[in-house]
Structure of Glycosyl hydrolase 36 catalytic domain-containing protein:
Amino acid sequence: MRRIVFFILAILVLISCRSPEKELKTELQTNESILYTKEKALEIVKTGFNAGDGYAEVWIRDYNTFIELAAQVYPAEELKKNLLVFFRMQGEDGNIIDGFTPRKDTIIREDFIYTDREPRYAGHKNTVETDQESSLVQAVYKYVQATGDRSVLDEEIAGKTVTERLDWAMEFLKEQRYSEEFGLLWGATTVDWGDVQPEHSWGVDLDENTHRAIDVYDNAMMIIALNNLVEMVPDLADKWAPFCEQLSANSRKHLWDDEKQQFIPHIYIEGSPFPDEFDESAIYYFGGTAVAIEAGLLSKEEIKASLNEMISRVEQAGAASIGLTLYPVYPDGFFQNPGMKAYSYQNGGDWTWFGARMVQQLVANGFLSEAYEQLLPMTERVLENEGFYEWYTVKNEPRGSGTFRGSAGVLYTAITNLEKSVNK
């Protein structure tokens, strides 16, 4: 009898030793591409704060995605200096710039932004976007979480504290980018999270040809920002919590297609810029879906369904990872900017910058083995190409900046979050 009991116990121990959790832990500790990716991410973030070798500027939407990584190698004061530049260059209506570059490196131009509060830098803003303000709130939140330094909230700039300026930035979106009809934020028509509208050869500024549209990315970013703001400054809960709940409810009501189990690309306020016969509803937006999950807009069942749909569309496109921006793509000629042809840049390029955010959300919602499976194509190409490229073609060929810090930041966070989860 004792032999039988011992035999059963031995089997149970063997099963325990070979559990998926322990196997995943071992994989994370030994996988060459993951170890290389972590080491390389720390290496490149030590070299600066601009978006990458193809960009001179420090962009807030990028800084928001690698400030946690930067906190591993820089003192808090250095990180705070960059954040404060955005507040010194805040517009008179509360808007936040996209990015800044050393003023000595720029010729005085009409499309740059200058202020006596920050004479060292010139700023710029792609006005087609509606995510600069929410990106800054999120970046400050991540800074506080990573460093424990709440003093940044009390820093005073031109008579307003950072807390007041964060609140003001949220007010800008509510007052200047809000549709009363739908109870949601609007921006220009862009591809998912992108910053290029179809009506212009460059396409980064609102103009008389812009077709205003509502999408899930902008609204999810605002929801995350408001939740972050209320957590940092509980006194603002009465003001912003109800508005945040309204954005969440209206995002589900107007943007989520329950039958298709996906978010629709756009709601148009004054009509679409695309031909009437074009069925935009067939397009699946990957990045906006990932950010919507972070904003708490989907159930666990819907998250799993979304992942399955992403995997299916990646296979249909012949792409390498769930960093694929969308599928199917907008046909050639739909965007005047030549960089937005089919399967190029934001129109069907494969961006780790957003794919790894989906991995982060899989981890956060308990899909650990799925997270690991979707992580590997991204870390493997970091190893193969010896760096973090801005985006990849559907053939997995690297394109754009070769030291894209946003990709390094989100990948590093995805890996470390997964490690923490399997080590619990």
